[in-house]
């Protein structure tokens, strides 16, 4: 099962003037988004506007000047190798087959291992793309840039291609957040989908460009070190989620990743779900991918004729005069269209036969499909060999896999996926992938299909139909079924999501501008803006307490703690009185929490703590109001903690002794409380004697002054 | 020795990927490729011409299919086929005539040829030479009274006779191939020299203090204007920029570098400026059999403006651009729609491109060429001189044989 060579390595090792350019094409998606189609055919061979996807990739790589392309096959490798042998690239392409790989990481590790057994494998920098990339960007410049950077900086091992785009919904991909150094173009942060959580140092750096309006093209220029890194870190599976993140977060040997923003006149996109399949197909029809368009024979395909209004027609397609073929339609070779049909925005493959009065809208009909009279097909994917009997209706979002038969007048419900193969019973592992089937071999599958056709009288697609309707079982994808479907996003969902993004934008604007220089004073990036204000004091008090406890533990000087508390005060927008209350609260809690046996011991604890940190408290209790606040706070605490009740008067007295609370404050507090309920007067009563004494004392003073 | 088949494949690939642009470059590559096809083709003893024609046709069909919009490819293939047919005809007639000819007259002829300096001139060369006499004598030459035809050998075909009389079959084979290759070389020479040939006539068309308008960029136009400048004519040039590819900017740069007074205008300003213009000169992508022109997009608009103000509309075209086909549905079939990214920024407009989503969708059309009907063209200047549009069919009859029109 070694790497296969199509052509003997007769090439002369060159490199005098120019280094050979090599590319690795991963011809397996390693996910299940295209199921059930990928059970019978590898994803890269699925037709995209009647040409297999991988042909776009290979044609692009070839014209970009790549000398040697390694195609890594996994699932359905025989079909793929067969296709490549027949194609015009057989001299350019070499295939590497491994059925054991379950991820890009495995694939690259396999290639790395092969490197030592093969004589001429990856020799220098290489382009890493997946086999579903559609692009027309020139690579030579990019590779040169990468090499020069590599020469200057040994650690620059990868250049990642990004492209500006407005709406992420277009390709059904997740939101991408990247942070790039605008001068060196070094990638500093990469996050797809998940929660955005920027490193503080990154945010404080004013010269970082943070953008969320780009997309990742999954086109990478890699140095050979990338392969060995995958070998060293055998747990890396996903190229972005593990490898890139690993390099950025774990800082492995100081390796760096750089980005390259594609010029806006180039096209680059990757097809990794049905929505992007739909979008990219339309881009091709609109000729954004020029010269890789259906009327140019770029891969040995028969070119179609381009007519007015973006209609591509094969020269031998037969069309009834009464059929209405709308704009942006592709009709393949040998296809016949009956009377009164209406076809809009659709791609119809080769050898199809379409009956009368058929409505096809926004759909992809592959090769040799039979559609009988009066069918209605909207936003569906119909694979090779499907038969749709008269009067059947495909509701939006339907995917019919190979050779399915839809019964007479049957209505296939929206978003359902239909295949002749039965859906695998839900596995424990979500990682059940294409390859699981490929190992069984196609012969097995085909016989299974035949049996099924014999037996399946009780088909789920009407009495004369054949096929199983798959259930969308993966709950994690449940919320995203509409996002990845071929159907235009329903209005209500669109409204939802724009609202969400709008909210997100508002948050973004306050925290991270969508694209621009960040201000350094934005240090509260992790703050949750959703918090109701009522809880603010609670949070503040807790934070103050923690700060205080830390200070006590470390035996810190007051001077060190005040700035901390001040910063807290400003960030929570609190008054000085609140600070005083919170600090006093912290002190008392500390006293209560520290071990004590009797109330007298508790009193001693409290007094010692007050003694120690009266400076800190004093800083915030310069006003009468603040002092009253402290007493009120103490009252509240006594309500919570019964132990403190008997000590109330004593501690207030102590505070007075230590000049934390002045007598005016106590007297005013007393006056305020005098009018309160009986239950509230417990503490006032306790202090009655003390207040009385205070009053007398002040009178005496006045007397003294008078005399 | 390079493998002809791989050379053909490589060229086909280039044409398909649209990596080769411009009629002259394409024509040159095609004719060079065909020359090597002919020279590597093994010819059977009987019916050699047919074998050569089949070989050239087979390659030609591939090339035309690879990029049907580049008409120069088809033109050159037909020219080469025509050369083969002419050579074959002249050889057979010579062989038949040679049997009756006397020895004495032969010697005279040979001497005659050598004296002129064109030994063993092939029929195609003669034909080519004869064509150059097609050019009507310009006013100047008429006045000066120097007969242009003096340098052209009329009798050289008889040189072939003398050889063919003694030649056996194998040498006859070699002879045909040799003559064909000679003819093809002549064609190559003609294609690469067409700019100079056309530029030579500049002085007769551009006069002092005139204002010339041109659109887009064309090497022929550049050479033409510069030739007039070298002859001390002073005039102004307006260059319409030729959106969306803006090749007019490049032309303007070149013109200024050569010391011409140049003004760049937008395409949409052509009508406003046309009343100040004395002549519109453009380069063509192809000239059709009816005298219609396929040129860079925007040309039709300029032609209509010129018509409205009775400004002469002059088209420069090398003879390889003469296409023996009649335009049928030229806006679509003979056009090439390029990527819309030349017009719009994909990133910014990607939101409104999702058609079928209920709301309206944006469609972008970016044609490369424009068709100008023959009634708007005042004059064609080819390497054989100036011609009326209605005269094109006559030139085409000279260059191509009727059997090759459909390949």
UniProtKB/TrEMBL annotation, chain A:
Q: Report the leader peptide range.
A: none
Annotated region Disordered: where? Answer: 505-537
Annotated keywords: Cytoplasm
InterPro entries membership: ARM-type_fold, eIF-2B_epsilon_N, eIF2B_epsilon, LbH_EIF2B3/5, NTP_transferase_dom, Nucleotide-diphossugar_trans, W2_domain, W2_eIF2B_epsilon
**What SMART domains does the record tag this protein with?**
eIF5C
Q: Where is the W2 domain?
A: 534-704
Q: What is its main location?
A: cytoplasm
The family database entries (SUPFAM superfamilies) matched by this protein are listed as:
ARM repeat, Nucleotide-diphospho-sugar transferases
The listed locations are:
Cytoplasm, Cytosol
Q: How does it assemble?
A: Component of the translation initiation factor 2B (eIF2B) complex which is a heterodecamer of two sets of five different subunits: alpha, beta, gamma, delta and epsilon. Subunits alpha, beta and delta comprise a regulatory subcomplex and subunits epsilon and gamma comprise a catalytic subcomplex. Within the complex, the hexameric regulatory complex resides at the center, with the two heterodimeric catalytic subcomplexes bound on opposite sides.
| Name used for this protein in its record | Translation initiation factor eIF2B subunit epsilon
**Source organism per UniProt:** Camelina sativa (False flax)
From TrEMBL, chain B:
Q: Where is this region: Disordered?
A: 140-172
- Principal subcellular localization: cytoplasm
Q: Where is the composition biased (Polar residues)?
A: 140-161
Pfam families, A to Z: IF-2B
Q: Where is this chain's protein located in or outside the cell?
A: Cytoplasm, Cytosol
> According to the lineage, what is the superkingdom?
Eukaryota
Arranged from A to Z, the UniProt key words for this protein are: Cytoplasm, Initiation factor, Protein biosynthesis
The entry assigns this protein to a family as follows: Belongs to the eIF-2B alpha/beta/delta subunits family.
Which proteins does it associate with, and in what oligomeric form? Component of the translation initiation factor 2B (eIF2B) complex which is a heterodecamer of two sets of five different subunits: alpha, beta, gamma, delta and epsilon. Subunits alpha, beta and delta comprise a regulatory subcomplex and subunits epsilon and gamma comprise a catalytic subcomplex. Within the complex, the hexameric regulatory complex resides at the center, with the two heterodimeric catalytic subcomplexes bound on opposite sides.
Protein name from the UniProt record: Translation initiation factor eIF2B subunit beta
Organism (species): Camelina sativa (False flax)
Gene (UniProt) = LOC104744913
